[in-house]
Every structure is written in C-alpha cells, then in structure tokens.
Amino acid sequence: MDIERRLFYDTTLLSVERPGRYLGREWNVIIKPEQDIRYTVALAFPDVYEVGMSHLGLRILYGLLNALPGVQAERVFVPWPDMGKKMKEMGIPLFSLERKKPVASFDLLGISLQHELSYTSVLYLLDLARIPLRQSERDERFPLVLGGGPCAVNPEPLAPFFDAFFIGEAEEVLGDIVMALVEMKGQRKDVLLEELSRFPGVYVPSFPPRQPVRRQVVKDLEHAFFPSKTVVPYVEIIHDRVAVEIARGCTRGCRFCQAGMIYRPKRERTPERVIELALELLRSSGYGEVSLLSLSSNDYSRIEELVEELSRLLEPYRVSVSLPSLRMDTFSVRLAQSLRRVRKSTLTFAPEAGTERLRNIINKGLQDEEILRAAESAFSASWQEIKLYFMIGLPFEEEEDIRGIGRLVGEILRVGKSLKKNAGVHLSIAAFVPKPHTPFQWVPQDRKEALEEKIRLLRDFFRPLRSQVRYHWSSFEMSQIEALLARGDRRLANVLLRVYRKGGVLEGWQEHFLMQRWDESLEEEGLDLSWYLYRSRSFGEVFPWEHISCGVSKAFLWEEYQRARQGLLSPPCALKNCTRCGVCGSGEVSLSDTACQTRSIPSSGPS
Amino acid sequence: MWERVFRRAAIPVLYSQGFNPRPLFSFPFATPLGVESKAECFEVFCGEPLPPWELQERLNREVPEELAVMRVQALASFDPPVQRILRGIVYTFFFPAFWSPPEKWTLPEDITVCSLEGSSPVVSFLFKGEKVLWNPLKLVAFLETNSGCPFPRRIVREKLLLWERNGG
Fold first, then answer.
1. I need a surface site. Which of A20, A318, A418, A423 has the fewest CB within 10 A?
2. What's the topology of domain B85-162?
3. Side-chain half-sphere CA neighbours of B45 within 13 A
4. Smallest CA–CA separation between B161 and chain A, in Å?
C-alpha cells in the first residue's frame, strides 16, 4: 500500500485542517538513498506537528541519529483528530513524514515524553500505528519502543507500554546504543532487551535494575553534538525560529522546579561556539529570528557580551535575537537594548510568587525591589507590555501571598506608567504541580476549591485595572491530572488505557481534555485521586521513582524541603559554595569552567 | 516561505518602515484558499540590482524540488502596476467522474472553455479581460445555478498568461 499516493493523489489532504502538517518534504529534511539504510528509527512526538517541531530535543535527536552510518531517522507526530479519523476510515496506518512509511515497519520507535498530559496520546500513536499497546503483546515483528525525555524520570505509569526507557541526555550515549541495536538487528526480543539493560541510563521494565538507573548527563556541552541544519516547516509552528542552546541546567535550585534539579549540573557553551552555530543554522534555514535557549538566560556567564555581539552581526540581515527565561534580578537596560535592535519580542519574567517570604520558601529569592528595577529597565527600553508568570497553590502559601501578587502587579504598573503611557502587564497564572526528584516531591497539591478561591481573590484585585492587566490561568483539572501522573505508580497504566479507550487523546489541549474520563477511569480501577494528590508524604516513604537516579540525593532534597519550611534561602550552586546535592559525584561531571564565573546574586549591578 | 528562500540565497530584500518591519513582497493575484496552483507570481523589492537570470538561478538553488522559479522580470518604477501585465489565468476543474459536461457551456463574458477533451469530466477555463481576477469558486457557483454542474473535486490553477514586455 502506498501511503504517499493515497495522501497526495486522492484528495485526503484537502479535506483536513492544516494539511501542511502531514506533508513532509520540508527544507533540510534528511532522506538517505534506499541502499544505504540498514536500520530505521521513528522519532515520535506525542503531540501535533506544530508542537513537536518546536521542540529542540527532537531536532537534536533527528540530527544525531541521522549522522550515524546506515541509520535513517524519521519524524512522526500525532494527527489532529480529524486526520486521525480519516486515516482510520481509509485504513492508512500512522506514517513517518520523511518517506511515508508505516511506523510499524520501523526497527525502533522512540517516543518523547515531555508532558504528563501527553501520555494518552502515546497510546493513540501506538494504536494508529497498529502496534499492540502492551509491550508483553509485542514480539520482534514490531519495532522496539523506547521512551525518553524529562517525564522518563518517573516512567512507572507508562512502564507496561514501553520496552525500555532512556533516562537523560542523549548526545554522548544514545549513538552507541543505537549502533549496538543496528548490530543486533534480527535478534530475539528478550536478547535485545537484556543487552539494552546493560547500557548506562537504560531502564528496561521487564528486567528490574539491581541498582538505580543513573540519568545520563553530557559532560562536555561545548563539543556535544548540535545540528547545524534544521528542518524548516511550511506551516507556522509554535516556536518558528532557529534555536541554539547556550546552557543546560540551572544553578538556582528553585525548589518547585524539576528541570532545575534533574538537569544538574549547569554546563555552558562558549559565546564563540553559540555564534558559530547560530550563523550556520540561520544561513541554512533562512529564518529571521534566533532564540538562545537555557533554563535561565541571564545566568549565562557572558550573556550581555553574547547578545550584543550576535545582535550586531545579525542586524544588517534583519535577523532578531530573543531570550526566553529571563531572571529579573540580573536584567539590565543594556541587555534590553541589545534585544530590541531588529524587532522586539515579548519580554517574559517569572517572579512565581507574590511576596518575598514565599519566594524565599520556593528558593526563587527575588526581592520586590529587583522585580521593579527589571520592569523599569524593560519599560524604559520602550517595551509597552511585559509578561509575568505566577504560580498559585505553592506549599506554605497564605492569603497574604495571593494579595502580594495583586500588590506587586500594581507596583509594576505604577513604575510602567511613569515611563510609558500605555504600559501593561500580561499575567499567566498556573497551579503548582509537585514533581518527582524535587524538594517538593513530598508536598500535597492544593485542592481545586482552594485554587479557585485564590483566583477569585486575584480577579477582585485586577477588576479595577482591567485595561492594563491581561491575565489567564491554566485549567486546575489539567493540573490535577498532571500531578497525578507526575508522582504516579504503575497502577495508573490501566487508568491511562481506560481514559484512552473513552476517547482521551491530545489531552494537553484544553479543548480535548475531559475530567470526567479520568474520574470514571480512576473509580473503575478502584483508585483514589486524593490519595495521589492531597496526601503529605513522609521521609520514609519509598517512591515509585526511586529506581531512577538523577544524581541529586534524596537527603539533599529533604534538607531543601526542611529549609523551605523554615523560609530559608539556599545559595545558587557554584564551585566555591557547593550545596552538596551530589550530582557531581566524584567529579566525572562538574560545573563547566565558564559557569565558575557565574555572578552570585550581585547586590550592585553587573560589572 | 519566500522570505526564507531569499535569505538562504543571500539576496537582500527591502523592508517596510516602522515598528515591525516586514519584507516588501506582494502577491498581486494570489490563489484562493482550497484551489491548487501550478503557477504563481509575486513582486519583490530587492536591495541590490541583480540581473534577472542570476536572481532566478540563485533562488532555484534554495527552493524545494517541487518548486521552480520559471521567470524573473525586472520592473522599473515607471512600469505599469503588475496587475496590468496579466492577460489571463487558466483554471482546470476536475468534476466527479460520474458527470459528463454539456456540449455547449453557458459562461459569463470573458470566460471561455479551452481545450475541451471529449466527454471527460476535466475542463479548463480561460479567465481574461475583466474576469481575470475572478475567484474560480465564483464560477463554480455560477455553473451550479446555470448549468447544474456538480461541485468539482479539485480546482487547479494551470497557468498565468502575461503580456510580454519589450526590451526585457
């Protein structure tokens, strides 16, 4: 059966929304000659094209695997339900974009796990591909199903569906693993799995590990693989620009932040290498914007130098530079001015909480004064609106902290008004979700009713400011399910199956999410949502994710939780001021040299 | 897409002024949504004078294999607007297989049937004069009411007929 013919020469693609998602054939796509292909890998992202293509990790893996001799890696995304229905009607199985091959015909199927609410879409992917959902029902005629990504640090809810998980960063190890699989092609599945389980960072649920599987970390980011070409989509995607990763990991240690814990230690690329990569990617793609990615842009040790140099080089070509994840305490007028040379992108800051007390508890450690100074820099560099992220439902939160958000926004507007007549603030409010491998993994989530009460309080605050404050908040029911799966155990696999059978797909999209499906499925499995969400855990409790180690010790996390309870700040990690989280171990991985120069919360401005 | 092709080909394009500068591309006779197209035309302001053949060659190195720049024509500021060089557009309608088209068509003025192939349900129409810029979907509606034609399965823009200019 020729999928390509049926898509293009029949009118299938004309009758679905945004057909460009299913087209493939984009600029810079990699298709090797048939005779050179020995092993095929489908890289699947359990969300639609626009979301999956915006993910840098997928682009890195695509380049990394296609650079291996004999290996052909191709992309697979979830079709929007209209296309999914059409494919089922017409008998078209899930296919890869590059060569339009059925996913079931690949040797390896890698699935990226970025977000808990995409778990049911994983089942949808397998089902559309006509691959049996449970790994126990699959033999060597089906592709080996490998999971990876940040959610793999607690793989248990998905364990029965995967053959194996790769925990951690792929650049230094995954190539070896795939090359070993190429050599073993055609072997029995149990042989493959046993062999796989011997690799570092690989967790095979059917071979329980004797000691925790250690998350793999790239030791040398400077020389780690980074693609120099990037696929350029025809349809507009969410992050439609060139992305260059300038640093991995974060030194701050915010206690709610999973990324800040699991991506330790912080490593940097030099500005020279970043500029080289940016220029090459821009030249080969034709994009007009480059985004410098990291968990905290202005913690990059030479950020001002980098942004200034890059903006200067790119200005004649009308290419702009943008920075996500800006911290307010080190944001300066100088940085603001380099950022707006070509065109201004949105400026986003994350104070997270409304009062200094609560910001100390979560170890964000921003002072009101620093927040106001950052806002002043932004408005004086002629931004009209800034975007702010806040969380509600944080541990030890009181009513005063919610009022604090209102007060702080009021103050920011007052500063803004004095500089710009139409100054405005755009707020994004999310409910706190406790995540595994963080100091708050022991904490109960706030009840939905309590969160709703807090939102009511905020709305009262913002009503008189309606023309200057735009705000929206995430669905609390979606946060509940995110929290359920984040700290979930293997019993939830059956819940996932039931939710999927009831029609739950693409649940990260509010329009597709339905709480009723989850309530019913949990009840049918005899499980209690509140046991997972609202229970305070003790130090002695053994978590379902303890066979996965991110290097950060449980004792360190508990210590941080106790410091939160006392409202104590912990310093950012630095070589001189080590907080002994344990990730650097006996020195095989450590903070990069460039990170040594990291400023530790300057009281006067940056030098 | 063209903005990126021009950037890859390192051909500078002029930008609009103002708060959010946009490249100066214009598509004077864009194909309506839902209609396939084999011929498109656009106008762009380049930042440096390049011979048309060089422009064509450099662009063709940077476009996907399904696309090609067929012709590049330099325009001077005293030339008539691009709309005026369009002589006609040919659209092909793919009617459902069960339906056989009539012997004689009742058509609005300035639209003629070209290359009618027996009783095939595939029919090409030439739009010219005043009707050049007509949306082909308007013709579909006209045919539905006047000749009882079914809705075509596909509509394809086949070609653009342009007036030749003297002196290149």
1. A418
2. Alpha-Beta Plaits (3.30.70)
3. 8
4. 27
Q: Give the model confidence (pLDDT) of B138-159 as tens digits.
A: 888 888 888 788 888 888 898 8
Dig out the tokens for B29 from the structure.
């006779």
Q: Which two tokens stand for residue A227?
A: 């693609």
Domain ranges of chain B: 2-60, 85-162
CA distance A103 to A109: 8
Q: How many residues are recorded in chain B?
A: 168
Contact between chains at A26 and B20 (C-beta distance less than 8 A): no
Q: Where are the beta strands (DSSP E) in chain B?
A: 25-26, 36-37, 43-44, 86-94, 111-114, 122-128, 154-162
Q: What residues form DSSP beta bridges with A430?
A: A391
What is the predicted pLDDT for the residue at A597?
41
* Sequence spans of domains, chain A: 3-214
Beta strands in A294-413 (DSSP E): 320-322, 348-352, 385-392
> Mind listing the pLDDT tens digit for each residue in A14-25?
788 898 899 898
> Cβ of A530: how many Cβ atoms within 10 Å?
11
Q: Which of A558, A280, A575, A286 is nearest to A440 (CA)?
A: A558
- Write out the DSSP string of A275-303: HHHHHHHHHHH--SEEEEE-SSGGGSTTH
CB pairs under 8 A between A and B: 35
Is B18's Cβ below 8 Å from some Cβ in A? Answer: no
Residue B66: list chain A partners with CB under 8 A: 25
Q: What is the pLDDT along chain B (168 residues), one digit of tens a residue?
A: 888 999 999 888 888 877 677 888 888 888 888 888 888 888 888 888 888 888 889 999 999 888 888 888 887 777 777 777 788 888 888 888 887 777 777 888 888 887 655 557 788 888 887 777 788 888 888 888 887 888 888 888 988 887 765 433
How much is the CA Rg of chain A, to the nearest whole Å? 24
Which CATH code for domain A3-214?
3.40.50.280
Q: Is A397 exposed, middle or buried (CB count within 10 Å of its CB: 0-12, 13-18, 19+)?
A: buried
A25–B66: do the CB atoms touch at under 8 Å? yes
